[in-house]
Amino acid sequence: MTSTVIAGKTVEVNDEGFLVDPNEWTEEMATELAELHGVATPLTDRHWVVINYMRKEYFENGTGATVRKLGKASGVDTKELFQLFPKGPAKLSAMIAGIPKPKGCI
Amino acid sequence: MTSTITDNATETVETTPAITKVSIIVSKGSLEGIYPALIMANGARNEGIEANLFFTFFGMDAIHKNRQDHIKVATVGNPGMHMPTWIGGIPGFSWLATKMMSKKIEALDFPDIPEFVEMISDTGAGVYACLASVDLFGWSKDDLIEQVEDIITVGDFYEMAAGGQIIFT
Predict the structure, then answer these.
(1) DSSP characters for B28-92?
(2) pLDDT tens, residue by residue, B33-42
(3) Residues of B with CB below 8 A from A91's CB?
(4) What does the domain layout of chain B look like in residue ranges?
(5) What is chain B's mean pLDDT, rounded?
(6) B19-71+112-168 maps to which CATH number?
(7) Complex prediction ipTM
């Protein structure tokens, strides 16, 4: 675990770069987190649909959605998810949304 | 395989390079032969790893239009079933075991095989059939689901798999 400054705020991140405390996240951090993890910016409305869905899922169920759940329920289908977050939609959107890596194999 | 990064010429840090590409060969036509391969291919894409699926021999049932919905659990010659083989051979037993497992899969909200293959294709993974097997079974591309990008030779496969890991199931 290390401390880092994101969007002017000091936060704790784990070895993979996920925020340790999702409550420390602010919307302003999203763009900087996206740039850090290789997601093209500026983030579009479609990125935000996924990011907001991930935060909602996390606070309701204790874990972010898997790609399958995102594809079925977020309003963004699997193909588009991979266009928005080519290197892993669930993992990267969780990273940008300031929540832990989603659990689940499928 | 590990590589060594030398920092300041005094400190040596060992790092393991991440997997960036996998080629998964599916050769078995049973549920337990196909499903793990699909999980691995899907999981790879979810981690941002390039993935290609190659279906050969009975594994091609998973991409056959009329067969992919009828994949069964092997109940004979499968010690993992924890029952005498002759019981597994009773007519209808494989159907029953498959039905039970399918119910569990559905209860966990896991996709069935047709949905899973379609989803994996949507993630950008390549889905390929083996030319020798297609010829052997007397099939053509029309027998296969639309997600199959091509019917390829073993040579094409090795070319495509170059630089990545190969997994055989």
Answers:
(1) --SHHHHHHHHHHHHHHHHTT-EEEEEE-GGGGGGGBTTTGGG-----SS-GGG-S-HHHHTSTT
(2) 999 999 999 9
(3) 46-48
(4) 19-71+112-168
(5) 91
(6) 3.40.1260.10
(7) 0.91
